[in-house]
Amino acid sequence: MIEVEVHQQLRAFLREQGEPYWPHHLTMARLVARALRLGRSALIQAGAPSGYHGRYRLSYLMPLLLWHEPAILVASEAVQQRLLMVEIPRLRQWIVAKKSIQTGDCWPDPEFQGLLLTTPQAWLSDRLYQEGRFPVGILTVIDGVDDLEDWTRSLLTTRLGSQDWNDLMQCYPDQADEIRDARVQLTCSIFQHPVNPYDRYLLEMPEQAVLEDLYQTLLEDRATESGQQDANRQAENREVDTLPHNWQALQEQLASRDQLLWTEVARPQGQFSLHSAPAEVASVLEPVWAQQPVVLIGGALDLETDAPTFRQRLGLGDLTCVKFSPDRQHELIQLYLPDGLPMPNTPQFQPILMQEVRALLNATNTAKQGLTVLLVGDMPLKAQVGSMLAAEFGSRVQVEKTCLDENGILISGWEFWRQHQAVLPAPHLLVITTLPLPSLEDPLVAGRVAHYKRARQDWFRLYLLPEALTELQRAIAPVRESQGVVALLDNRVNHRTYGQQVLTAMSPLARINYVDASLFTQFEGLGARD
């Protein structure tokens, strides 16, 4: 069987090459091989970061290269480059059979029996819009499904900017005045919204009414010109044929309660853009999974092995679910979680936070070892922390920069750290000021929460908390690899019912009640990761 061959080949390869330690290589390789043989879908939580350096990738590459039938591997362009330049050449030197490997955004030809590497955007676009570029029924491995929901929502997002207004006036030159008036009304209304850190706002009912009136005007005028006032159905069909694509998509989405409608503004330029995206993607993804067997691989997707929350949000039915846990001996972190700090939403939080941060930095100063990272999700607080620390520690402090001193202090938001942690040195100390719970001040977060409320669902347990736990596990992954120190300064972990879930997500860990220079001596000689 393919499982036996994969096990033997991978075990011999790992022994010969002296691969970095990961205890689940052989188990995961057999699971993927079994999925190939049976054509049965599976969801694998690797328990390791799914970024550029994902250590588990040898575990699915070996069965894919040994399998005698065609397969598709969906991965980001950065991961594809890593596979093509590093992992695949080494495996192909070891494996006798030479399977054809190609990259592209469509299936090469009907006779192709090799492995095709493609991007999530290309594969999802084909499946969601039925473009016919990839055949059905071919087993597909999707790497990095931590981001699958975001990939899907991004593809389904309609965006209208300045050029779209010009295109609309070209299609309806006789209604140019009405189109300009609608644009002016929207501009005046949108720019009256109070400034927020995100520069975006949900479209309110009066603003949606402006768009609906504009569509109605264009529809009626087109019907008059065509002499079809007596046939509303014909007028609607005519309108669909003449509206530019983005405007047609927005019209279809405008009346749906399952859509998020928002605007993003560029205040210095006095411009805005309109956006529409589905509040949930499960309903559109559910038919996709029936078209072929899939092996979905991510880092940490859900606290439960059968991933009920993740599967619900992605429209996944019954499938084999496996969850690998980090190894306690090699991936344990030291967690400093002080009690008695003010809650993050109180005025007392910032000054006490700065006291704790200064004490932690003084401990690392004594050790003089490696990078320190402070994760600050609140945008105004991030700027304030950066300014105060720069005044004390000088050029060592950088706010969201990748050019850092050997003993630098990086002040970062969650998104920046997620995007750049693979190319930065593993921090000897990671300070988390607050849990990465999505902020209800973000209009898009508020819109999705409103969707859960309308459906009478638990928006905190199904949306905010899973998002925070996933972000948290991805953020601490580099520290886990070096068994460093994480300082979590959010006292809600000690006093909220979900605190135990946070600790479970961060496990394995060892609680410590103080931080001093002795904790960092183990980092001596550590440099940037390969």
UniProtKB/TrEMBL annotation:
InterPro entries: ATP-dep_Helicase_C
Domain of life: Bacteria
A GO molecular-function descriptor: helicase activity
Biological processes per GO annotation: nucleobase-containing compound metabolic process
Keywords on record: ATP-binding, Helicase, Hydrolase, Nucleotide-binding
Residue ranges of domain ATP-dependent helicase C-terminal in the record: 429-508
A Pfam family that the UniProt record links to this protein: Helicase_C_2
Designated name of the protein: ATP-dependent DNA helicase
Organism expressing this protein natively: Leptolyngbya sp. NK1-12
Lineage of the species this protein comes from: Bacteria, Bacillati, Cyanobacteriota, Cyanophyceae, Leptolyngbyales
